[in-house]
Design a protein that fits this description.
Number of strands: 9
Structural class: alpha/beta
Helix content: 40-55%
Strand order of the largest sheet: 1-9-8-7-2-5-6
Distance between the termini: 42 Å
Shape: globular
Radius of gyration: 18 Å
Strand content: 5-15%
Length: 237
């Protein structure tokens, strides 16, 4: 049985002062490209490896580095695993910059509209440099005032969410994500969580939810501040 969700129109709207987004499964789906890169590395580095498929990558999206490495390459010792995963990261960045990935419908226009009202930021469990790859591939960096990831800090998503909200001066941030891990991070950081149903996972319990990015944009604009966005005194990039 699926965890219950409720639509945003059924939820009280606090006076939000910033929006933080998860990346994979929320803003884009890079699993097809990432899987091809990891598969090539696995076959090259590990004799007899059966390969890495898209379902494998979807199953670990949102997890921290060490857990991803353990689940994808359980047969390797820690040192070998780390070397292979770092090679995978390099290969995926190169392939993503060449081939791109699927930005979800409504994200480009929605972010542009939201950036007029709110400071926007990203918090992800990804490796160092992955958010920068997303920006390079999509050209969306100018709409965000900050970003943080596990690869930079070694911290949990909830801890990074708290850190980013603090340095951006977001006293009432909302976190938009697609997995139970995102929901747990929002709870740890003490911010509202909005679940996007089109992503990779399900929430732990009842929470505000939207069917697509167009609905998210609409309800956030209806509830949002009427003044221009800024992030700790900075305009979007």
């Amino acid at each position: 049985m699926q965890p219950a969700t409720r639509s945003m129109t059924q939820s009280a709207h606090p006076a939000w002062d910033g929006i933080v987004f998860d990346l994979d499964g929320t803003l884009w789906d890079a699993t097809a490209t990432v899987a091809r890169a990891w598969d090539a590395v696995a076959r090259q580095w590990i004799p007899g490896h059966p390969g890495v498929i898209r379902a494998d990558i979807r199953g670990v999206m949102g997890l921290a580095h060490a857990e991803i490495a353990r689940r994808i390459f359980p047969q390797l010792d820690p040192a070998q695993r780390e070397a292979v995963v770092q090679a995978c990261y390099t290969a995926e960045a190169e392939l993503l910059r060449r081939e791109g990935a699927m930005v979800y419908a409504g994200v480009r226009d929605g972010l542009a509209a939201l950036a007029v009202r709110y400071p926007l930021a990203i918090v992800s469990n990804c490796q160092r440099g992955y958010i920068e790859t997303f920006f390079a591939v999509t050209g969306l960096e100018r709409l965000f005032c900050d970003a943080e990831c596990h690869g930079n800090t070694g911290l949990s998503k909830g801890e990074n969410l708290m850190t980013l909200a603090g340095r951006c001066g977001m006293a009432r941030a909302v976190f938009v994500g697609n997995t139970a891990g995102d929901e747990a991070a929002a709870e740890q950081a003490g911010v509202l969580f909005i679940h996007v149903r089109y992503g990779f996972g399900q929430p732990l319990g009842a929470c505000p939810a939207v069917a697509d990015f167009a609905e998210l944009t609409r309800v956030l604009l209806e509830a949002g501040p009427q003044q221009g966005a800024a992030c700790n005194g900075k305009e979007p990039r």
